[in-house]
Design brief:
The complex is a heterodimer of chains A (568) and B (401). With 568 residues, chain A is α/β, with parallel strands linked by helices. Chain A is 26% helix and 19% strand. Chain B is of the alpha/beta class and 401 residues long. Chain B is globular. Classes of the chains: A alpha/beta (568), B alpha/beta (401).
Chain lengths: 568, 401
């Protein structure tokens, strides 16, 4: 049973504290995020009111028709002389000029020679993190979303490069906390609602130093042992959950006995009758301390915060010896307590040592008050283990940075042994040698090293530029990512490097748009120019992968995020 | 005894056969070289400002004999023809400063002044780094003394080859340094002030030298303008010191590194200095990434040097950040050739130049353009065998960018 009170409210408070801009309510999985979180600063060019999606009764939505010579939707064939129609924060239509009905009140923007692409998706970055976060080992329970800085030294260049969605992860070794998906803006970023906790990160690349392969594998096995150590923790959680269920039932019986004794069945419950509200959430000492294993992941707003409460104290403890007094009318609503059953009586008889069937008619069981049930003590919560349990439940992907083939193989084996359902590999520089293994394991890869240059001698055999082609040939889904906020501006050139090494251009474009969106689980909203998706639109003066390509304009969720001052 | 006499002619015959077998490849190779090579392509970039479409190049004895419409009809018919139908052929890239992985052997650490040492003496014609150059589109490279000395010695222009590399120019430019690596706490100079003074004293001595001291004469050739001086200077103070020395001694240096030159472009232009930039990296600051554009705007010659694998990407990044394609291509072909004093041989495909060229699927400054083949001295060192020739080439137009 999900918590009914503390979850949304505390989650909203938490998000407000974390981002100061986050929406008040977390959307259901798969639900489209709002165009712009309330309070988020937006570019001055944007004349539309922010947060339109949060106000469905808004009088009108801004409609923009982008005319361009070449439209590259990524999902589907290219369109010559086409239109991308934006309504509010979503794409309303994409098609050839004449095939798309443009409303009379639509703003029209024309790029006579322009090339239009979906906003780019950078599937691995350290943008908005500070040096300490990048270097520090963060356990699986530490959420980067809690500590992202609003603006660094070069983050403003990210959206200017046409990148509208970024996965931000840590670089800690071996644990790098939980990464977040954010939406870069001209003056910072906005969280991607519902994806503030996007994956648990690990860094298992041993580096270029000379190490023994078995030593590296041993390290990986040691780190993955954390998943095996969850059994005791999970058992305690399950036991506590069962105790809570029992407590809830006993308390309902306890209430029912008093109500029946007072002759007011269905009337007000005793003044201390609040436990059912928290009985289902493990005491709810703090948000994020959800005791139900089945409810993990449903309360992401508070998960991962350090120093959470131990959940031992119920919020409203009933009086030690309740003496329900006759209650007057209007004192409250009746509880959803079940009608009194024989159980309190049974308990009473047990207490006196009499057998229930000995003297059935002599002394009514109702005469003896049942003992008030004791609230079960919750086990201490460990955010790190909670996060790992979510990984095992498939609610959070596990992202592992690896370089060498033996590291990749060891991680695949460890993840298989630990039954990690969703694994994403990052960097994967030496992945070409075991592309078949990656394909058979169906593990997507985020390539962060697709750039020419000197590599340490230990990595000299790995061809970073040929890697995308090798993975494509093996059938491994891959994204090309910057790996760093400072390199974000060169993301299209990285894709171009892969083309120069033999990758098809359409595949290279997909590797920086739709495929990373799929890997991040946000393909319903971003990654291609399709009706219904967020209106993330990038307009360039020539094909994106050419070196002299200039970004002319960027729309992020329908709002102008960047517009060049040069004449187009 | 008879048997011994019988064996002698056998031995002689064996020896003759062995000699023939050994000489046959040489004879065949000489015969192959004697035949001209006609290279056809979609676009031929003779130099950054000269483009021929469709392109044709006649190679004779490893050098460019004719270009485009200048090719005599008779030579055209006799030549072996190779075709890169949709390709763009450009001069093979020139890397103006590299140690080719031999850093340790290119610095004499005991003394700070070794201007007469020659990097050519430490050249390894079988080095792995040298063999790697063709598949990066590079046809020649200046093997330079390291920056560990204030005056390190003379660079050598070297080339990769089919079996082994070769030195094309033994004494190219003079390598000097004021940057941090030249200051060594275990010997003089230990500080920038000392390095500047040491260089000044050396240049004065070279100017006054009448005895023909080899070390001083190496510097004197710089003062006479016979060769360029590459001066490693990273910080503003180092750059300004080099510019001051250049003014004092009337030389036009090439500033090597010059990462902090963003604020000093005007001073560099006024000193008629040039810049050899380390490869641009995506993670660099915007002002550094835009430095090539600033240099181009101000008319300061510049090239890219350093790690061979990053040369082309550096030029592409410069284009991404505003540099024109022409200037970016010049920065990896003609300009470094000029800095090395070898513009008559490498960096362009004009008549008489070495037939060092690279064929790309498209524009070489687009990283999506695949490198198809690289020829050095008319010999293919990288790439697949080109296709058969078309029926009749149509040379119709010659224009400039």
């Amino acid at each position: 049973m999900r918590p009914t009170i503390s979850g949304p409210v505390l989650h909203a408070l938490s998000c407000a504290l974390l981002f100061a801009t986050a929406p008040a309510q977390e959307p259901e999985p798969g639900q489209a995020p709002p165009s712009r979180p309330a309070g988020e600063a937006k570019p001055s060019e944007d004349k539309a009111a922010p947060g339109n999606a949060a106000a469905p009764a808004a009088p009108r939505e801004r409609t923009i028709a982008i005319h361009a010579a070449h439209i590259h939707p990524i999902a589907g064939a290219d369109v010559e002389n086409g239109i991308v129609l934006i309504r509010g924060d979503r794409i309303a239509a994409v098609g050839a000029d004449g095939a798309v009905a443009v409303p009379a009140d639509a703003e029209t923007v024309t790029f006579a020679q322009g090339h239009v692409y979906p906003g780019l998706v950078d599937a691995a970055s350290d943008a908005f993190t500070d040096d300490a976060v990048r270097a520090e080992t963060l356990d699986a329970g530490a959420a980067l979303a809690d500590g992202l800085r609003r603006r660094g030294d070069r983050e403003d260049a990210i959206v200017r490069a046409g990148i509208t969605t970024v996965y931000v992860g840590g670089r800690g070794n071996p644990w790098s906390g939980q990464g977040a998906i954010v939406r870069p803006t001209a003056d910072g970023f906005a969280p991607f609602p519902g994806h503030e906790h996007a994956a648990v990160g690990m860094r298992l690349a041993a580096g270029a130093a000379e190490t023994h392969a078995l030593q590296r594998q041993q390290l990986i096995e040691t780190v993955f042992r954390a998943f095996a150590e969850l059994d005791d923790y999970k058992k305690k959680l399950d036991e506590h959950q069962k105790a809570l269920e029992k407590y809830k039932k006993d308390f309902a019986d306890y209430l029912a006995w008093h109500e029946k004794k007072n002759g007011k069945a269905g009337a007000d419950k005793p003044a201390d009758a609040s436990p059912p509200a928290n009985a289902g959430n493990g005491g709810g000492a703090r948000e994020g301390q959800d005791a139900q294993p089945g409810a993990r992941g449903g309360q992401r707003g508070g998960r991962g915060r350090r120093g959470g409460g131990d959940g031992e104290r119920p919020p409203q403890t009933p009086a030690p010896s309740p003496t329900p007094a006759p209650q007057g009318p209007g004192d409250g609503k009746p509880a959803d307590a079940k009608p009194a059953e024989a159980k309190p009586a049974d308990k009473a008889t047990e207490k006196t040592g009499e057998k229930p069937g000995d003297k059935p008619a002599e002394k009514p069981a109702e005469d003896k008050a049942p003992e008030r049930p004791k609230y079960p003590k919750a086990p201490p919560r460990e955010p790190s283990k909670d996060a790992l349990l979510e990984v095992l439940d498939g609610k959070l992907p596990l992202r592992v940075e690896v370089v060498r083939p033996d590291e990749i193989r060891a991680v695949l084996a460890a993840a298989r042994d630990r039954k990690v359902p969703s694994l994403v590999l990052e960097n994967v520089l030496g992945g070409a040698a075991i592309a078949a293994d990656l394909a058979s394991a169906s593990v997507p890869c985020v390539l962060t090293a697709v750039w020419p240059g000197t590599r340490p001698e230990a990595f000299a055999a790995f061809d970073a530029l040929q890697l995308p082609s090798a993975l494509l040939a093996a059938g491994v889904p891959f994204a090309i990512a910057s790996g760093s906020g400072r390199r974000a501006g060169a993301l299209p050139l990285m894709a171009a490097c892969a083309v120069g090494a033999g990758l098809d251009e359409a595949q290279a474009l997909r590797a920086i748009t739709l495929t990373p969106a799929e890997i991040l689980g946000v393909q319903k909203d971003v990654g291609s120019l399709q009706t219904g998706k967020l209106a993330d639109v990038l307009v360039c003066d020539r094909p994106l992968l050419r070196s002299d390509c200039r970004v002319l304009a960027v729309w992020s969720a329908g709002a102008t995020a960047y517009q060049t001052e040069e004449p187009r | 005894m008879n048997a011994r006499f019988d064996r002698a002619p056998h031995a002689a015959r064996h020896l003759a056969l062995l000699l023939l077998a050994a000489l046959a490849p040489l004879w065949t190779a000489a015969g192959a070289r004697a035949q001209d090579l006609l290279v056809q392509c979609k676009t031929l970039v003779v130099a950054p400002d000269t483009v021929v479409t469709p392109g044709e190049l006649l190679v004779r004895d490893g050098k460019v004999a004719h270009v485009g419409p200048e090719i005599p009809a008779e030579a055209r018919t006799r030549a072996r023809t190779v075709v890169f139908a949709d390709a763009t052929i450009v001069p093979a890239f020139v890397l103006a400063h590299s140690t080719l992985g031999r850093d340790g052997d290119l610095v004499e650490r005991r003394t700070a002044l070794t201007p007469g040492l020659r990097a050519a003496d430490a050249f390894d014609p079988f080095g792995d780094e040298l063999k790697r150059l063709p598949r990066l589109g590079i046809g020649s490279c200046a093997l330079a003394p390291g920056s560990g000395n204030v005056a390190g010695g003379l660079a050598a222009l070297v080339k990769p080859g089919a079996a082994m590399g070769a030195v094309a120019r033994e004494a190219s430019y003079s390598k000097l340094a004021l940057a941090a690596p030249a200051r060594n706490p275990e010997r003089q100079p230990t500080a920038l002030m000392g390095a500047i003074d040491l260089l000044r004293q050396s240049l004065r001595a070279a100017r006054a030298d009448q005895k023909g001291d080899p070390d001083l004469q190496a510097l004197a050739s710089v003062l006479r303008g016979e060769r360029r001086a590459f001066v490693h200077a990273d910080t503003r103070a180092e750059i300004l010191a080099v510019l001051a020395l250049a003014k004092e001694f009337g030389i036009e240096p090439v500033l090597l590194g010059a990462g902090d030159a963003t604020d000093l472009v005007e001073a560099i232009a006024q000193a008629r200095a040039a810049v050899a930039l380390w490869p641009l990296q995506p993670a660099m600051r915007d002002e550094v990434l835009r430095l090539p554009q600033t240099l181009e705007t101000r008319g300061v010659p510049f090239c890219f040097v350093g790690e061979p694998g990053e040369l082309r990407a550096a030029a592409a990044l410069a284009v991404r950040y505003g540099t024109s394609r022409r200037a970016a291509l010049a920065a990896i072909t003609r300009t470094p050739a000029e800095f090395c004093g070898a513009a008559d041989a490498v960096g362009s495909l004009r008549r008489g130049c070495d037939a060092d060229f690279a064929a790309f699927q498209g524009d070489p400054l687009d990283l999506g353009s695949r490198l198809l083949a690289v020829y050095v001295g008319g010999v293919q060192l990288f790439g697949e065998a080109p296709k058969a020739p078309p029926a009749t080439p149509d040379i119709t137009r010659k224009d400039s960018l």
